[in-house]
Amino acid sequence: MIERLARLVNEDLAIVRWGRGMNDTFMVEVGDTQFLLTVRDGRIEKLEKGPFTMRPWRFAIRAKREAWDKFWQKTPAPGWHDLFALLRRGDVAFEGDQRVLMAYLLYVKLVLAAPRNA
Amino acid sequence: MKLEPIVGRYAQFGKYRLYFEEAGQGIPLLCLHTAGSDGRQYRGVLNDAAITKHFRVITFDMPWHGKSSPPAGWEKEDYRLTTDSYTGMIMDFIRALGLERPVVMGCSIGGRIVLDLALKHARELRALIGLQTGAYVERYYDAAWLDHPEVHGGRACGAVAYGLMSPLSPEKERWETVWHYMQGGPGVFTGDLYFYQVEGDIRGRIGAIDTSVCPLYLLTGEYDYSASPRDTEAVTERVRNTKFVAMKGLGHFPMSENPEAFLGYLRPVLDEIRRA
Question: By the CB < 8 Å criterion, does A40 face chain B?
Fold first, then answer.
């Protein structure tokens, strides 16, 4: 699912506009697989698949593959429909610079939910 | 043009200057908004002719929220809502407007405070309706980020509210609900969450609620993970004879994120209250 994310975001101004001013790289972990998303002014400039060696990132969002599968359903079930829903149930971990994550929280939520529309 | 029947006014009493809106005539129905928002959340209820035919629907913006003023000297202190200040302002408002045995309906923090009203003021109230009621919510994120000089509070508060809604609710109403959150003042949502996530743990007291004095209705949207149906069920296990309905396809802001669907659940409750 996540491989199509860059195109889905970049083609959708309604998502890109919430990321304006963001110029950072963040990690998304889907089970054992790591992805680095490099954002330039709200567009996903690069989406790279790991493994990585000594690559920096601003913040990381880690969840099991099964959790992302439920999160990425077209209409997710209650409790699986939002990043903070996963947080409350203990199925996602946020690491790194929480300030940047919170500053761009709406953007990050919309970006990570974009695969639902694939 | 369509002119809505809702009328807004300001009221000064005691230490308050509060903005409130109302529509309809009959039994007073006082509606309490969620943390960090304002009375616009009840636009669907205030505009519903089937309800306003029998009820005088009223909603006030809490101090610091919406168009209500913060108290003089607000710039010198952190805003923090507490159980006593919240219950106090509700009863002050009821007495100032001379509302006789109103029905009080609140959502989220309002859904919590109706439990305190049930304990302390049952005889002065006709019925209580808790939306998204939980007796306590453990902190699962740090609300201090919602009031941080390097994080835009409006954007962050909007992002938190966005996720609490159902993906099935109409986009237009969901984004209106987000907008209210984006308009909140700095530290206000966080100050409300002090009551919701820290001070306002009412679990130990609710067993003393007597629903034979004042009926307690509980309606909870299934997509809410802040006050989930499970959290409301935990209340029903401690309070005898509550009337609980889990609302399909709705989230944390039922009256605002999907007014039409919510009214389908509210109207029968109000009919029952009216006929009792």
Answer: no
- Whether cis (ω within 30° of 0) applies to the bond prior to A51 is yes
- Residue ranges and CATH numbers for the domains of chain A are 2-117 (3.30.1050.10)
CATH code of the domain covering residue B169: 3.40.50.1820
Q: Token match 């990585």: residue?
A: A52
The span from the CA of B73 to the CA of B90, in Å, is: 22
DSSP-derived 3-state class of residue B125:
coil
Q: Is B110 helix (H, G, I), strand (E, B) or coil?
A: helix
Contact B238, B218 (CB under 8 A): no
Contact B151 A103 (CB under 8 A): yes
Quick: pLDDT tens for A49-77: 999 999 999 999 999 999 999 999 999 99
Rounded to two decimals, the ipTM of the complex is 0.96
- Residue-wise pLDDT tens digits, A29-43: 999 999 999 999 999
Q: Do residues B247 and B100 touch, judged by C-beta distance below 8 A?
A: no
* Cβ–Cβ gap A78/B223 under 8 Å: yes
